[in-house]
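Throughout our pipeline, every protein is held as a single compact record rather than as scattered files. Such a record has a labelled line for the sequence and another for the backbone structure tokens. The remainder of this section carries one protein's record, kept here as part of the documentation:
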Amino acid sequence: MHRTIRADQLLPGMYVHRVAGAWLDSPFWRRSFIADAEAVARIRASGVPELVIDVELGLVPAESASSPPADPACPRKDVTAPPASPPDPSLLTAPAPAALRAAGTASPATSFETEVRNARQLLESGRALVEAMFGEARLGRVVDTDVATPLIDALCDSVLRNPHALVSLARLKTADAYTYLHSMAVAGLMATLAGRLGLPEDAVHAAAKGGLLHDMGKAVTPAHVLNKAGSLTDEEQGVMRSHPEDGHRLLVESGMDHAAALDIVLHHHEKMDGSGYPHGLSGDGISQMARMAAVCDVYDAITSDRPYKRGWCPAESLKRMASWSGHFDPVIFQAFVKSVGIYPIGTLVRLQSQQLAVVIEQAPAALLKPRVRVFHCARRKARVLIRDLDLSFAGCDDHIVQSEAPCDWGLRDLEKLWLP
């Protein structure tokens, strides 16, 4: 049972389910935790007005006679609450058990439309933070990665509520924002993939953290190489390939000691057949996290518009990635496809009825039958009345024949059809 209390009512041993206010205002990267003495002090010093506690997972606050009932529909009995007993001393330092952490951090599912609105605000706020970290690195200053922990937690929460909204929205990048939004997109994809693989909560956060920081080395890559429109020379290719080691060095010099995240930064360009860089690792010599990052990094890169090329459509990108023998871990790649969908949101498809549609929602139990928005007749080459069609519905007799390239149909703003 959840109850909202004032910050000055928080006591050690209470289970904090959620801190009120914007994620950036919270002094904690986790939304849910057992409060200890230090946490109580930080909450009270932060200016956070209220928080939500779970009275079934932690201590229950004493209620005064003037306190409102927890449920307005069920008036409180006219009794005097017993005085609060002092908390068990072991609760002051003991971390929450894994089961309690899992129970407390589950976010309620939201629709794609609702979560896109949340994701827009998150990406806008997060871009400024990521840009500031890159700026510090570019100036040779120490990078404080701890400031990113609230953002990482917010990214994880977003993909838990809806795994498609943030990563679909982040795919729409402008050239000047590419590096920063790419970092957040990869973090979101990593969290989504980690959840699909059934990894524990701390591993999901580690995956997201590594995804957010994976390209930190590009902060010191010369702009003329990073944004070059044409092919890179051998020398420029060598400069570009130094960014994993540059990022690893920058973060270690800044005092970061998160092993999993550092491994992602250093090895996200390794390939299963040993042809990757910087160390030419292969097979099991590449950690699971780095193998995950290799998939997420490439997918977001090739589906995004870059200074030197237009992005491929999501479904075509997955098809091409599947054909790159020796590049990706096949088990991880299969899990990734299941997490984003065979026809990811925003994919232009041709139906058996010769109508064009854009994918607007996934059907988790039927990856080949998403919900689509029909808007064009391919046979007559004319627009039709827009309508939504659930291909997984038992009575639907239409199905996807193939994905289509928007440029072949002169479509440059396809997102206007699927973005709320």
